Each structure stands twice: as C-alpha cells, then as structure tokens.
Amino acid sequence: MKKIVACVLLAVVLIVCMGMKGIVPVDVSDTSGEEMVTMYTEDGRSEQFTPSEAEEQKTVGWYDNFNDVLTTMWKEDGSSIVVYNADVNEYEKNGYTSNYSSIFAKVFNPETEEVKDVLKSEVQSYVDSGWKRGNGKIDPDAPMIALTFDDGPGAETTKRLLDALEENNARATFFMLGDHMKGAADTIKRMQSLGCDTASHTYDHTQLTSLSGDSLKSQFEKSTNNLKDIIGEGPSTVRPPYGSYNDSVKSIAKEYDQPIILWSVDTLDWKSKNADAVYSNVMSTVQDGDIILFHDIYDSTIDAVVRLIPALMDEGYQLVTVTEMGEAKVGGLEPGKVYTDLWPSTVKSITGSSTSGGSEKSETSEKTNNN
Ligand SMILES: [Zn+2]
C-alpha cells in the first residue's frame, strides 16, 4: 500500500513539475567524443552538430540556445505554460497570450513598500484596500513627461482616457473646471484612485487677470470646495485659463497652496480636432521634462492619446503627474510659482539658484486658443 501511495505521489510530483516547466530539453548524448553543439528548432526538434555545421544550421532556423525556441504564455487566470514558438498561434486560439503585461500589473503598498505582480482583474481590490498601481517608484534619472488635460471632465471622453491610462499604469494631470466637477464625481474619484493629479482650471474658465479681490478669490474658493466635497482634498495645482496670470493670481494661488502650471507643448488639439495631427505633433517634439497640453473633451484627442500612451512608454518616457515630476526633478513644486516645463536646463536653473521658479512666461501672454 505504501508503495502505491509513493508511486502516486511520485507521479503527481512529476506531473506538477512537467506542468510548471512545460517543456524540458531532449537529452541528446554526445557519442562522438568531439565537442558537439546541441541545436533546437522552433517546432521542437533537437540535434547535435559539429561547431562548423552548427554555424551553418543557424542560417536555416536552428538555435543553439534552447530558450530561443520557447515562449512563455499566460491565461487570464494567471496560469502559464512554456511552448515552442511554432505553437504560439495555436495556444493564442485557446486563450493564451505571450504578453505578460496584458495579464499582470504591478501594485505596491505605500506603507510597507512591498511590490507585487498581480492579475489585472485583482488590481482594483488591491487599490480598494490601500495599495497603489505601479511599483511606486519614479526613476528621477530616466526621462519623464506630464500629460495634462484641460476643460474637463468630459463624459465619455474622460472615461476612455482613464481606461487607457489604467491599462498602461500611466498617470496624467487633469485641470478641471469647478463647475464641471459636481456632475463628474465618479470620474474624479476614479482619477484619484488611478494616482492622477486632480487639479484646477478655475471655476468657470474666466481670464483671471480680468478679476481682482473677492471675484478672483472665488474662482479658487469654489473649485477647491467642489473638489474637497468629492475626494476630500483640494486641487494639487492650478492652470489659469489662457495661461494668463499676474502677481495677484500668483499670490492667491500661493494662498490656496497651488503651484501654477503652464505647458511646453501645445498640441493644438482643440483646433485641428485631428488625431493624426495631435499624435505627430507630440511625437516629433517630445523631450524629457515636457508638460503637454491637451483637452479631454474631444474624441479626436482621446483617439490620439490612446496611441500616444504606449508609444511614449516604448520610447522610454515615464508618464507621471505634474506633482510627481516636480518631486522627482526639483524636490517639489512651490505654491504660487509658475512652471512651464521641467526640462534639464530648467531643473538646473531651479536647483542651482534658490530664488528661481522655473521658466516663467510673460505676465499676461495673450493666447489665441481656448485652454
Ligand atoms: Zn481651458
């Protein structure tokens, strides 16, 4: 009886091992005595060749590294299998994918700093219990940019944008109008849960330099209150409509604890309403430290951004919020100061002298757009 149990156990162990490994190399013994090279094909064949033959075989689809003929594939439930490259298409038909990041995402615990790879379907439950998306780290020495969106939240457009950000573990900054917030509470909560910056674009898009006293203050007060009602905190930063500000605006922004954020790349998305134009505008000019201006109220903008997010990440850019970029590059943004970009040259001027507040635009730069 014990023997039977032992055999069954051994069989189970073997099956488990095989299941985990999927494929093990065929054992081809070296009988010739000379140094032979074991080679493999993508459909699972294996043979030995002399070194000179081996070089030739490489030109006709043989590999001397076994790993080169194998692909690891995953299913929605997180189970994995290692298959020969030739079988990838067949396994794809059966619900497997070789794209690890389409199944798993990183989450980190801000208190313990633990980082885990979890199923994408489980990410939300982690977030609900205090974890954050991503690995919690921004590499301050690697390039980063801030995608920023004005005049929203939109309804469907902002939802699509958040879907794309979530899918890619990317973040953005939303300069929202205070009078749009009440009707978009769920969207704004989702922004916060995704780690995005929830920021202000004033209450009703008034040119701030035309205001003073209580009416100027009220643009900050009402936006701050509306956002606090929804997520319990005020705007992280402010972008004045038309990029227009003066000393009074700077001083009230300081009072409300908000750095003033302009932009270094204007996609002119509101003008072209053309996804291809917006896409190439960004890809042709983007550089480390850019703050890129979009409006999340146009379908064409979202069409462009859905393509831009993975393309920019492929180019090595970390897609961070304005606040994160400020913390990573200059140790934090100062309320009331004006930031147009955080290019390396700007960072140098900020960190090199304690009085500079970044590259400031002219006081009341008259914009012809509708930012
Ligand atoms: Zn605007």
Question: Can you characterise this structure?
Answer:
- The protein is α/β, with parallel strands linked by helices and 371 residues long.
- It has three domains: 2-75, no CATH class; 102-132, no CATH class; 138-352, TIM Barrel.
- Helices cover 39% and strands 17% of the residues.
- The protein has helices at residues 2-21, 51-57, 88-93, 120-128, 156-167, 178-181, 185-193, 213-231, 247-255, 269-272, 275-285, 299-314, 322-330, 344-352; strands spanning 37-41, 46-49, 62-63, 70-74, 80-84, 104-108, 115-119, 132-133, 144-152, 173-176, 197-200, 260-261, 265-266, 291-295, 318-320, 338-339.
- Helix 5 (156-167) runs parallel beside helix 12 (299-314) and helix 11 (275-285) packs parallel to helix 12.
- The protein is elongated and about 90 Å long.
- It starts with a helix and ends in a 19-residue tail after the last helix.
- The structure holds zinc ion.
- Zinc ion is lined by residues 150-151, 201, 205, 241, 370-371.
- Zinc ion binds at residues 150-151, 201, 205, 241, 370-371.
User: Span from first to last CA?
Assistant: 80 Å
The residue fraction in helices comes out at 25-40%
Q: How does the helix and strand content classify structurally?
A: alpha/beta
Largest sheet: 6 strands, parallel
Going by CATH, the homologous superfamily of the largest domain would be Glycoside hydrolase/deacetylase
SSE arrangement, N to C: HEEHEEEHEEHEEHEHHEHHEEHHEHEHEH
Strand content: 15-25%
CATH topology (level 3) name of the largest domain: TIM Barrel
Mean pLDDT equals 87
Q: Which descriptor suits the 3D outline?
A: elongated
By CATH reckoning, the class of the largest domain would read Alpha Beta
Number of helices: 14
Q: Total domains, how many?
A: 3
Strand tally: 16
Please state the CA-atom Rg, rounded to the nearest Å: 27 Å
CATH 2nd-level architecture of the largest domain = Alpha-Beta Barrel
